[in-house]
Write a structure and sequence with these properties.
Helix content: 40-55%
Number of helices: 13
Shape: elongated
Strand content: 15-25%
Mean pLDDT: 89
Length: about 350
């Protein structure tokens, strides 16, 4: 990032804050009068020109004011905005809402999405807590054709995995069901190490099945875990930036297509520490679907045990301070709730 003078930093911050509020190009005369600057309009105009040459601002058309570029927003978020927090009264109100939700994880997720959307005025997404310490819940074995058997493996936390097995010889459904019942009784709630170290009695079929289940559990799974909770999509689509159908459609793809969201989270959130907030502006040159959007993400939970993701998506002209502080607070609150639940 280029080095800016103190006056340039101030002018850039004021342009961005004003544009976030109004969605209208910002001129030098407006800045001087609206913010009571102690310099002339001509001086501010010169700084606007300099910031435009640096790539932090642009002029939509001749004689118009300036609007921020993606680089301008990035400089603002990383260099000018500073640390932001929600008001204490807002924090207490939100915390009380979660307290009233009891120990219902589904209600936590829905409430988190609702609060994120309301506080940030953006589209919210919350992923259910995903167990990083995989535990066996139960499996089903379904005879299909000849020696082929469909194994449906369900893990604690709701993740479901399916695998087609080819056995040494055909096995009737009754025998497969009996094997599944025995394995479920023996391994329910166990992690990989406990299952591997199990020394109880199993016949040859059950040994083969559990060996394949262990191999499956060693494979990386769906980081989204269970359900993805969303809120506030309609209010985001009402923003002027999403008036064009193609722009709105791209934004919706990130929120609604699981494969795209999986890719986004695997490359961003999984590399971040729990509670750390990440801000992607304009897709950062990686995600075409985010070219006209910004997204704020954070990971919550207990690393190595159970984690999930919270975030908000909106136009690049996003109220970053409010969005970041809301995402950070909700991530911390959910971390505390999830950790306490697992401790019990």
């Amino acid at each position: 990032m280029k080095t800016l003078t103190e006056r340039q930093r101030l002018v850039l911050a004021l342009v961005i804050r004003d544009y976030i509020d109004t969605a209208q190009p910002v001129g030098s005369q407006h800045l001087v009068e609206h913010y009571n600057l102690d310099v002339s309009s001509a001086t501010v105009r010169n700084e606007l020109v300099a910031l435009t040459k640096m790539g932090y601002l642009r002029q939509p058309y001749t004689s118009a004011g300036r609007v921020p570029t993606e680089d301008g927003y990035r400089y603002f978020v990383r260099q000018l905005m500073g640390h932001t927090e929600l008001p204490e009264t807002t924090k207490r109100t939100i915390a009380h809402q979660f307290y009233q939700a009891g120990h219902d994880v589904d209600r936590w997720m829905r409430l988190a999405a609702s609060v994120l959307a309301h506080q940030s005025q953006a589209a919210a997404l919350v992923t259910a807590p995903h167990s990083e310490q995989l535990r066996f819940k139960h499996l089903e074995l379904i005879a299909t054709h000849g020696r082929q058997v469909l194994m449906v493996l369900v893990l604690v936390g709701g993740e479901v995995r399916q695998q087609m097995l080819v056995l040494a010889e055909p096995v009737p459904q009754e025998r497969l069901s009996a094997a599944a019942r025995n394995l479920n009784a023996a391994f329910q709630g166990m992690d990989l190490n406990s299952i591997t170290a199990y020394s109880g009695q199993m016949d040859a079929l059950e040994q083969d099945i559990i060996k394949l289940a262990i191999e499956d559990m060693h494979q990386p799974g769906d980081i989204l875990g269970g359900e993805v909770y969303r809120d506030g999509i309609s209010q985001v689509l009402a923003e002027p930036e999403f008036a064009e159908v193609d722009v709105a459609r791209k934004a919706l793809r990130i929120l609604e297509e699981r494969s795209l969201l999986e890719d986004l989270l695997s490359r961003t959130v999984l590399t971040a520490s729990v509670g750390g907030v990440q801000v992607l502006i304009g897709g950062e040159g990686t995600w075409e679907e985010l070219r006209d959007c910004s997204i704020v993400l954070a990971r919550y939970g207990a690393p190595g045990i159970v984690t999930g993701t919270v975030g908000v998506l909106g136009p690049i002209r996003m109220a970053y301070g409010r969005s970041i502080s809301t995402v950070r607070f909700i991530a911390g609150l959910l971390s505390d709730l999830v950790v306490d639940m697992h401790a019990e």
